[in-house]
């Protein structure tokens, strides 16, 4: 033993014994492990703390070489000293944390250090043990671990809720509810959503096409026996021995706030909500987990005014094993934490479902309003007219842009394009009023300035809340006479008169040059306090008139003048020889990402001589929006003939027949407006017709006892065809078959 500093020799044995006996550290001396670690000596601190003195024997039933011998008496659990046994058996000693028992019966945590003592021959003879009470540190460490675990659970819960919110943010994702249920399985063994649309239905996503019905109409309501006198005699009665109270129906009806515990190891009336849910849940849980459930916890998924569905979680119990006393005793996590997470997810899901369905309903309403107010286009003999309208998708498909092409008296055509400020339903309503006013005066009066003066007077009295701009023009044929039904003369020209009310000037395209028709400018509609003026132009064969709204050229990163210059430049480079081709070229160059509503009217005077001799390099696609009326069938035939001529495609007769049948089907069996698109694919013509009826077309053998019914058979003979869902309706396509080449 080393010397104390400042002393010539070490302490005397008496001094050492005094120090050891007086220390507060628990100390003891044992024999070797081979001898069973007999307790040879303990100091007073050890005796007072544990009540175990020198000479104590091992507890009864303690195996000799697999235990700490007499020291087992101080251990709360003998297994807590198991780690020390191998070290002591090998003679290495060491420090070990053990849970010990005080003489009073209380427990404490102790760091016990075993120091081996060997004789001169190297044989282990004794162990000196020192025990330090570390209960305070262990408790503090345990509290820190619990706090850390709680923080981790909270972060995991927040992350789960954040992922749930992200999934619910994508209203078009078809498996949002399924993915959320799978996320919840990190805190519960199994979960699923059920929506209450005319009765409970297992749901993987939000079906926005089905508005919330509520109140579980597909399920029967059962009452307890005390209300038997109020039962409907036609309603099915609960069978003997079945549960009469329908907790699920009460939750759906909002009679209870929930959540409710639903036992699945009992029978319910077959027509009740609880009975239907029990049958479906037992099957699904067994299929997915291989375990038959005993009970589930059911949370209401509530909307603004009613319960939209259920969020069901299974707590892991099995049928026949018994239901936990606490319905929220989940297998993972703290019960309160799990319940909070599930309730938050259910609330957010309910709000998202409600918002998605409300948005879809408003969107359908807006589309219906827009379809009711869509511009009209009359076919005019001697003119090639193409129109286009695209509301900005960010504004729920409602805007204030409009146009009209009016066949006033057979020789006079009225053209109007306008723009009401705003992108909401009020703007669309104002547009509808202005459109009706302009159409009324256009059929009554002939001079554009006079028409607009009358419109100003009426609008001032109507107090339309939105300002608007427009261009109104009339075209009158000057050349040959088509009264005999023949095509107009090749050199036929037209007189054009127009006036403007705060609107951008139309463009006149002639022989590669572009001119802005900026005459007869005036103030916005309703502010015409100065008499309006009329400007005049003479249109020649081959001329193109372009009417448009500011959505075609307006961008946030440039001024309107720069946009107008870009339009003039793009128009000068047009190579198309038909109105639809002119429009498609402009859209491809200027309207790839419009920031506002876009309306375009293109009017071209055909030039039979130049059109037949000059090749066209126009875009290889066309589009038209046709009203659901019989006249659209003829317009579609003319459209496909002009496109085939512009593209130099042969066999236009087959294309005319196919498009006629497809558009006729849309007019007869569809609803809403009809969208027609043509594509030159390089190896033939592709025709697409879209309408708002989702029902697919059907090939029939004709209508019994009446004419017709062979339309799709004709299409099948001439083209490969098919269909697919599109928006709220369908799209039917047809690809013309190439004619078989017969060798000479």
Describe the structure in brief.
Helix content is 32%, strand content 24%.
List the helices and strands and how they pair.
Blueprint: H1 13-22, E1 26-31, E2 39-42, H2 44-50, H3 84-90, E3 94-101, E4 107-118, E5 124-133, H4 135-169, H5 176-184, E6 190-196, E7 200-203, H6 247-252, E8 260-263, H7 273-289, E9 295-302, E10 307-314, H8 335-373, E11 376-377, E12 384-390, E13 401-407, E14 412-420, H9 425-444, H10 448-462, E15 468-477, E16 494-501, E17 507-510, E18 513-516, E19 535-539, E20 544-548, H11 560-572, H12 579-590, E21 598-604, H13 608-613, E22 621-626, H14 631-647, H15 652-669, E23 674-680, E24 685-691, H16 711-718, E25 719-726, E26 729-736
Parallel strand pairs: 11-13
Antiparallel strand pairs: 1-2, 1-5, 3-4, 4-5, 6-7, 6-10, 8-9, 9-10, 12-21, 13-14, 14-15, 15-16, 16-19, 17-18, 17-20, 20-21, 22-23, 23-24, 24-26, 25-26
Helix pairs in contact: 4-5, 4-8, 8-9, 9-10, 11-12, 14-15, 15-16
């Amino acid at each position: 033993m080393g010397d104390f500093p400042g002393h010539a020799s070490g302490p005397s044995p008496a001094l050492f014994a005094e120090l050891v006996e007086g220390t507060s550290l628990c100390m003891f001396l044992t024999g070797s492990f081979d001898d069973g670690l007999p307790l040879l000596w303990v100091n007073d601190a050890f005796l007072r703390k544990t009540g175990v003195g020198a000479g104590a024997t091992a507890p009864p039933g303690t195996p000799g070489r697999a235990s700490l011998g007499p020291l087992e008496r101080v251990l709360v659990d003998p297994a807590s000293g198991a780690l020390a046994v191998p070290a002591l058996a090998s003679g290495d000693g060491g420090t070990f944390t053990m849970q010990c028992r005080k003489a009073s019966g209380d427990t404490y945590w102790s760091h016990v250090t075993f120091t081996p003592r060997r004789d001169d021959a190297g044989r282990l003879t004794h162990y000196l043990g020192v025990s330090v009470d570390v209960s305070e540190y262990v408790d503090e460490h345990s509290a820190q671990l619990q706090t850390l675990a709680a923080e981790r659970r909270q972060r995991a819960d927040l992350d789960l809720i954040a992922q749930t919110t992200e999934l619910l943010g994508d209203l078009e994702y078809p498996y949002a509810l399924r993915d959320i249920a799978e996320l919840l399985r990190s805190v519960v063994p199994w979960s699923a959503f059920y929506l209450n649309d005319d009765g409970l239905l297992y749901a993987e996503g939000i079906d926005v096409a089905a508005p919330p019905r509520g109140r579980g109409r597909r399920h029967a309501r059962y009452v307890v026996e005390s209300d038997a006198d109020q039962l409907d005699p036609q309603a099915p009665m609960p069978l003997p021995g079945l549960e009469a109270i329908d907790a699920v129906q009460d939750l759906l009806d909002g009679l209870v706030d929930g959540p409710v515990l639903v036992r699945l190891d009992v029978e319910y009336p077959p027509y009740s909500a609880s009975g239907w849910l029990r049958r479906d849940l037992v099957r699904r849980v067994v299929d997915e987990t291989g375990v038959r459930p005993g009970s589930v916890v059911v949370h209401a998924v509530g909307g603004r005014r009613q319960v939209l569905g259920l969020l069901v979680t299974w707590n892991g119990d099995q049928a026949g094993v018994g239901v936990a006393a606490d319905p929220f005793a989940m297998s993972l996590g703290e019960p309160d934490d799990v319940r909070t997470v599930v309730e938050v997810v259910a609330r957010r899901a309910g709000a998202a479902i409600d918002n998605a369905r409300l948005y879809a309903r408003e969107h359908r309403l807006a589309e219906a309003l827009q379809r009711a107010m869509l511009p009209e286009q009359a076919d005019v003999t001697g003119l090639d007219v193409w129109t286009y309208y695209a509301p900005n998708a960010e504004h729920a498909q409602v805007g204030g842009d409009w146009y009209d092409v009016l066949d006033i008296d057979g020789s006079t055509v009225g053209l109007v394009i306008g723009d009401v400020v705003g992108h909401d339903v009020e703007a669309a309503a104002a547009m509808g009023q202005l459109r009706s006013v302009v159409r009324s005066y256009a059929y009554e009066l002939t001079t554009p300035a006079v028409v607009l003066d009358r419109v100003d007077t009426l609008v001032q009295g109507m107090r339309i809340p939105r300002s608007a701009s427009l261009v109104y023009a009339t075209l009158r044929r000057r050349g040959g006479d088509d009264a005999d039904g023949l095509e107009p003369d090749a050199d036929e020209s037209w007189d054009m008169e127009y006036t403007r009310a705060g609107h951008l000037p139309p463009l006149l395209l002639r022989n590669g040059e572009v001119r802005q028709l900026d005459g007869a400018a005036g103030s916005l509609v309703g502010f015409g306090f100065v008499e309006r003026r009329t400007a005049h132009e003479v249109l020649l064969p081959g001329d193109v008139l372009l009417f448009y709204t500011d959505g075609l050229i307006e961008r946030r990163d440039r001024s309107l003048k720069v946009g107008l210059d870009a339009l003039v430049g793009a128009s000068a480079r047009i190579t198309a020889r038909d109105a639809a081709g002119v429009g498609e070229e402009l859209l491809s160059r200027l309207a790839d990402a419009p920031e506002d509503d876009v309306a375009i009217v293109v009017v071209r005077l055909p030039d039979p001589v130049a059109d037949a001799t000059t090749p066209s390099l126009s875009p290889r696609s066309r589009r038209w929006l046709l009203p659901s009326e019989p006249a659209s069938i003829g317009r579609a035939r003319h459209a496909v003939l002009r496109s085939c001529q512009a593209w130099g495609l042969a066999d236009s007769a087959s294309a005319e027949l196919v498009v006629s049948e497809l558009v006729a089907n849309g007019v007869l069996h569809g609803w809403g407006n009809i969208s027609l698109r043509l594509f030159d694919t390089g190896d033939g013509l592709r025709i697409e017709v879209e309408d708002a009826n989702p029902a697919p077309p059907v090939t029939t053998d004709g209508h019994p006892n009446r004419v017709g019914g062979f339309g799709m058979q004709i299409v099948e003979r001439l083209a490969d065809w098919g269909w697919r869902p599109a928006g709220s309706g369908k799209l039917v396509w047809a690809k013309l078959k190439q004619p078989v080449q017969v060798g000479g």
